[in-house]
Specification:
Helix content: over 70%
InterPro entries: 5_LipOase_AP, FLAP/GST2/LTC4S_CS, MAPEG, MAPEG-like_dom_sf, Membr-assoc_MAPEG
CATH superfamily: Membrane associated eicosanoid/glutathione metabolism-like domain
Subunit structure: Homotrimer. Interacts with ALOX5AP and ALOX5.
Transmembrane segments: 6-28, 63-91, 111-135
Largest sheet: none
Number of domains: 1
Oligomer: single chain
Radius of gyration: 20 Å
GO molecular function: enzyme activator activity; glutathione peroxidase activity; glutathione transferase activity; leukotriene-C4 synthase activity
CATH topology: Four Helix Bundle (Hemerythrin (Met), subunit A)
Number of strands: 0
CATH architecture: Up-down Bundle
Order of helices and strands: HHHH
Number of helices: 4
Protein name: Leukotriene C4 synthase
Length: 148
């Protein structure tokens, strides 16, 4: 990979690293809550305060693979800039979701809807980018058939 290709991917890589660090932070919060509320692994139930932190971390982890896959698909096929902005906003919204859920289940809802909106935007960008790539490919194939 040459230097130009690195520059083309640096934004996506930065958002990915930020999201990975966020996941690590969420895991550390569960460890801290386990100690604070004396909930030993593998138990996943305990005081409501612990369960909220645990559920918030699990919920964020469940969406993480989907987010990473769609972030990169959107960035490669649609626009790295738009994808990075949406990806960074998604990461921030998930942090707000986690913090809100740790306080009370109702406080997670706004951030949940915001993060879902950014995820759907990335999905839309990905679909548009892939569709345009197919159209360009089909156009090239038709041109090759015409020339041949």
């Amino acid at each position: 990979m040459d230097e130009q290709q690195h520059h083309q991917l640096v934004g996506l890589a930065a958002v990915t690293v930020a999201a990975v660090l966020e996941q690590a932070y969420f895991s550390l919060q569960v460890i801290s809550a386990r100690r604070k509320f004396r909930v030993s692994p593998p138990c996943t139930s305990g005081p409501p305060q612990f369960e909220r932190v645990f559920r918030a971390q699990v919920n964020c982890s469940e969406y993480f693979p989907l987010f990473i896959a769609i972030l990169w698909t959107s960035g490669v096929f649609f626009s790295q800039g738009a994808s990075c902005v949406c990806g960074a906003a998604y990461v921030m919204a998930r942090l707000c979701y986690f913090q809100g859920y740790a306080e009370s289940p109702q406080q997670r809802l706004r951030a949940l809807y915001v993060s879902a909106g950014f995820l759907w935007l990335l999905i839309g960008f990905s679909c548009v980018g892939i569709l345009l790539s197919f159209w360009r490919l089909a156009g090239r194939l038709q041109l090759l058939n015409y020339v041949a």
